[in-house]
Design goal:
Elements (H helix, E strand, L loop, with lengths): L1 E2 L5 E2 L12 E4 L5 E4 L5 E3 L12 H24 L8 E11 L2 E11 L5 H14 L1 H6 L4 E6 L1
Parallel strand pairs: 7-8
Antiparallel strand pairs: 1-2, 3-4, 4-5, 6-7
Helix pairs in contact: 1-2
Length: about 150
């Protein structure tokens, strides 16, 4: 991200698309979503409902966790740090209200056992600056990263 001449933060245009995820969704929070390749085919239900489906907050948390793990791997590789096989990211995405408006907030809880706390924090901070999900949501929602 960079500032333009008016001081507004802008996101650079993608020069080369690596992948496009495509889904077809019907019914909103009480519907269905299917990817164009058929690998994702899920029922959607509202949080707290009795349905068997998942919800957008869980899907965001899962995608973000996977991406963040990849970003930690890149940061560790550049820093020449060997990651433990049992490291993980638990992501929590909250749906809430302020007044009558709906908002999201999130926590990325990162477990990097056996890595010095300062080194681990640097990896998390670097990953948060480079993960496309983190960049997309930075400034839009409240995000906390935690070493656990």
């Amino acid at each position: 991200m960079s500032n333009n001449t008016n001081g507004v933060i802008t996101t650079p245009k993608i020069e080369k698309v690596i992948y496009t995820g495509k889904t077809h969704t019907t019914g909103g929070r009480e519907g269905f979503s299917k990817s164009s390749d058929g690998n994702l085919d899920i029922e959607l239900t509202s949080p707290g409902s009795k349905g068997n489906g998942t919800n957008p907050e869980q899907l965001l948390a899962a995608g973000w966790s996977a991406c963040f793990i990849g970003a930690i791997g890149i940061a560790a590789n550049k820093a020449k740090v060997k990651l433990p096989e049992d490291f993980y990211v638990d992501t929590e995405v909250d749906l809430g209200v302020t007044g009558v408006e709906y908002y999201l907030q999130a926590r990325l809880n990162v477990h990097l056992p056996g890595i010095d706390k300062e080194v681990a924090q640097t990896l998390v901070d670097t990953a948060h600056k480079t993960c496309p999900y983190s960049k997309a949501l930075h400034g839009s929602i409240d995000i906390t990263t935690n070493l656990i």
